[in-house]
Amino acid sequence: MLKTILKVIAALVLAIIGGAFYLAGASENVEPDTLEVADLSPPEGLMTIAFGSCNREDKPQDFWPVIAKNKPETWLWLGDNVYADTGDRDQLQAEFDRQKNAPEYAAFLASVKQVYGIYDDHDYGLNDGGKEWEHKAMAQELLLDFLDVPADAAVRSQAGVYQSYTVGEGNNSVKIILLDTRYFRDAVVPPTKKGHRYGQNANGDILGEAQWAWLEKELTNSPAAAHVIGSSIQVLPQEHGYEKWDIFPAARERLLALLSATRPALPILLSGDRHLAEISRVAIEDQFLYEITASGLTHSYEAADEPNAHRVSPLIGEKNFGLLHFLAGASGLQLLAEVRAIDNNEVLTSLAIGPDTKPVNKAALSAIIHPKDDMLSQLKECPESPNCVSTQTAQADKKREAIPYTGTFEEAKEKLKRAINSMPRTTLKSESGNYLHYTFKTFLIPFTDDVEFLFDEEAKLIHYRSASRVGHSDLGANSRRMNKVVKAFHEQ
């Protein structure tokens, strides 16, 4: 009798174990009850260049994650990268070091492929300074050090920081031409109009003959599909009374004539300096020439109100940065240019043009480049069965506390991924924006469970949902698992 009972018990145990293994195997093929997340990867053929200016290194640098959200491959400094206003080498070096060592900026540097730039006046060392500045060679050297320009680069052995770089390849290549508007610039002259800081130096120059010859060579027969020309001061606007190319009208006309003669593909001017943002446009023969001014990163001219007959956008007085999205198409590169708010990444103004510089359908181009701008904010509710825990459930017995984090969203995400990747039987199934989806397999009997994470960047919290794919009770497995994940995250 006892033997019979034992056999029955053994058979039941084996049946239970067998059933458990069967369910575990079946769980591998069950469609998970997780969020359906759109593919947020950038479209093929997209290149994004971010740019900005007017950055006080002694002010908070917590805006860099906002710029990083846009996944730029290249960052362009357009001047006033720090505010030093000094000819003292140690002091200027210290200000550059302070900026470079800011944790948020250092993290941003690690997220982009390349950083290029020019100075304006405050990082040149002399407010509104030009060729008369006796410490200009030192300013050039320290700027190039700040940008990590190689010691054997041509710009290291010339006078002035003008440089050119090509990003992308072949029919999708973009040439970046950065002008030095300080090293060779002639003297400014007193104003002749009320409210103006300077008048016009009719025959004065900005670039110097060596730089003019270099620029003509860079533009003539250039094979690049687009040309980004960076100037620290504004090129097209003519009416305001501050520094601009128009206080040297002969130089401004020479630049426009050179662009008309060489006709580089898809030219776009970038500038900073003004503590405001706007888009300006002039016609050159059968094409348009646009200029995007983006300034400043840490402080801006909130009460900006000045005329500009060439302006084709709102005049923006809040802190801002710029983006150039180049998208390859059958007829050549198209450009979606944006000025965004530094505080919340809101698009403040934008421009969409084709390879002939004529306007294209902005909404359609934006939909391709930004297929899904909004971050996810809510995980699915847990089922009524007890095999689920979540930080966003309304069911009190399954409710858990979100994981707090410090630093940037990108840093927290990488930290969490390292913590989970160190655990056995885990697989990253999908990653999109602020969302992560992992599968965990249980020990001995390999049930497949789904664990999802949402990062709330504003609150600096990580929400999660851990749920079994099959069965009813999990005997507390999901709760224990998430305790281990939270502990591993904080131990990183």
Explain this structure to me?
Helix 3 (89-100) runs parallel beside helix 5 (136-146). Strands 3-2-1-10-11-12 form a six-stranded mixed beta sheet, with helices on one face. It is an alpha/beta fold. The protein is elongated, with a radius of gyration of 29 Å. It has ten helices and 18 strands. The longest helix has 28 residues, at 2-29.
Brief rundown of the structure:
The chain is α/β, with parallel strands linked by helices and 492 residues long. It is built from 10 helices and 18 strands.
Descriptive tags:
492 residues, alpha/beta, six-stranded mixed beta sheet
SSE diagram, text form:
Layout: H1 2-29, E1 46-52, H2 64-68, E2 74-77, H3 89-100, H4 103-111, E3 114-117, H5 136-146, E4 163-167, E5 174-178, H6 209-219, E6 226-231, H7 249-262, E7 267-271, E8 278-284, E9 287-293, E10 320-329, E11 332-341, E12 347-353, H8 362-369, E13 388-390, E14 403-404, H9 409-421, E15 426-432, E16 435-441, E17 448-456, E18 461-468, H10 477-490
Parallel strand pairs: 1-2, 2-3, 5-6, 6-7, 7-9
Antiparallel strand pairs: 1-10, 4-5, 8-9, 10-11, 11-12, 13-18, 14-18, 15-16, 16-17, 17-18
Cα-atom Rg, whole angstroms?
29 Å
- In sequence order, what are the helices and strands, one letter per element? HEHEHHEHEEHEHEEEEEEHEEHEEEEH
Strand content: 15-25%
Q: How would you describe the oligomerization state of the chains in this entry?
A: single chain
- Tell me the number of helical segments per DSSP (H or I, 4 or more residues long): 10
Q: Approximately how much helix is present in the residues?
A: 25-40%
Mean pLDDT: 92
Straight-line distance between termini? 58 Å
Compute the number of strand runs: 18
Low-confidence stretches: 15-24
Largest sheet: 6 strands, mixed
Class computed from helices, strands and strand pairing: alpha/beta
Spatial strand sequence of the major β-sheet: 3-2-1-10-11-12
Gross morphology: elongated
